[in-house]
Every structure is written in C-alpha cells, then in structure tokens.
Amino acid sequence: MIVIAALLCGAPFATAQTPDAEPAQPEAGMLLSVSLGFQRWPALHDLDAHPFGDFDEDGLNLAAGLHIPWPKRGDSELLLGFDLGLMVHESDIVAPGDYGTIDTDVLYIAPSLRWKFRPSRRLQMNLEAGVGAYHAEMREWIEIGYDFIEGTRHFSSWAPGGFVGLGFDIPVGRTGRWSLSTGARVHLADFGNVEAFGRDIGRLNGPITALQLGMTYDWKDRRHD
C-alpha cells in the first residue's frame, strides 16, 4: 500500500502552479483498458487436497479498467477510476461424490489510481494501485460433450484486498489514442482457511502475481483537443 500513499501524496506536486500560471483544467475524456494474461498463486498450490489431486498455481486472467484524468501538468497525469478482473485456476482434483474437476475462480473489483508518465514520445509508463473486494470460489465443473455444467461448490469467500502494478503503453495508429499495453500486478487478499473435502486443507491468501498484455483507448472530447 506504499504505492497508494505515494500516489496520493504526489498528486499535489503534479498539479502545483506558479502564481502567474493559469489553473490547470481536467481533460474531458477517459481511459479504457482491457487485457489478458496469466498469474501464479503459490498459496493455492500449497493447499493439501491429497489424495484427491492438486490445485494448479498457474492460471489465466481477464482484466478491464476505466479511468478519468485529473488536471494534467507536464509529462505526468493522475487518473481515478476502477478495475475489475477474473482469475481462473484449474486442477486435477475430483472430490468424493463429484463427477468433474474443481476450478478456483477469483473475481475482484477495486477503485484505483493510475499515474501516467511519458519518458519518451513512443513510451508511456504507468504506476497503478487499487483497494477493493475480492471473491474466491472453488466449484466442480462437469464436462458433458462440449458443455460444462456447474456442480458442487466446495468453498466461497469474500475478502478485502488490493493490488499494485507497473505497466507500459506503446501508442499505435495515427491518432495515438490506441496503445499496446503490457504490465505486471501483485494482488494481496486473505480468504482465510479453506474447509473442503470434510477438513481444513490450509489457508488461502496472497500474493498473486499477474502478467498482462492488452490494449488501451484514450478517449477525449474533440472540443478539448
């Protein structure tokens, strides 16, 4: 959470004005982002599901965000908004009485800050931080042909959590509003002890380390260009 404090404390310096300067005005627009990636969750793999199988610590994720800029000064810009995402982990576990394997899903939504820097014309760096709600669930999925049917829910828990991240955007196209984005995030949440398969199989917490690749679109009102 040190990054969150740094972003909040740094905001006044990003918008500081000299006595003769005109007040900075927020740009009319928003930043939309979407990404795919993978993550690693060691604590999930450490859960003791023996003799039924093991949880896979590697999984896939989908994330999206929407942010609105604060007043801009120089080559940096602070944006406020929210991020949401879904992380999925498979396993080879078939519990007694089940017909399919168990997947672990994490859904999160978090108000967040994004501080953008432009070290060069063709590169933009982002510092990110957010705090919100995380939900973890372990559920059986039964495969029937090409369909999957939800089965037994073995665990479900809500927990407060947050993330910090570092990302880079590379503008593409003539307008410069589209960017190829890549970055890494570390998520922290503690879902408590997991009671499954008739016993306590361990504690499920962070960190979850995620790598992502996606696109961002910097929409601006043309009347303010």
Key descriptive features of the protein:
single chain, 225 residues, mainly beta, Porin, eight-stranded antiparallel barrel, 9 strands, elongated
Describe the structure.
The chain is built from two helices and nine strands. It is mainly β and 225 residues long. It has one domain: Porin, CATH 2.40.160.20. It has an eight-stranded antiparallel beta barrel. Strand 5 (123-144) and strand 6 (147-172) form a beta hairpin. It is elongated, with a radius of gyration of 21 Å. Mean pLDDT is 85; it is low at 1-26.
Structure, briefly:
8% of the residues lie in helices and 64% in strands. It is mainly β. The longest helix is centred in the N-terminal third of the chain and has 13 residues, at 2-14.
Please give the structural blueprint.
Elements: H1 2-14, E1 29-40, H2 42-45, E2 58-69, E3 76-89, E4 101-120, E5 123-144, E6 147-172, E7 178-196, E8 199-205, E9 208-220
Class by SSE composition: mainly beta
- Note the gap between the termini: 35 Å
- Strand ordering within the main sheet: 1-2-3-4-5-6-7-9
Largest sheet: 8 strands, antiparallel, barrel
Q: Give the proportion of residues in helices.
A: under 10%
Number of helical stretches of at least 4 residues: 2
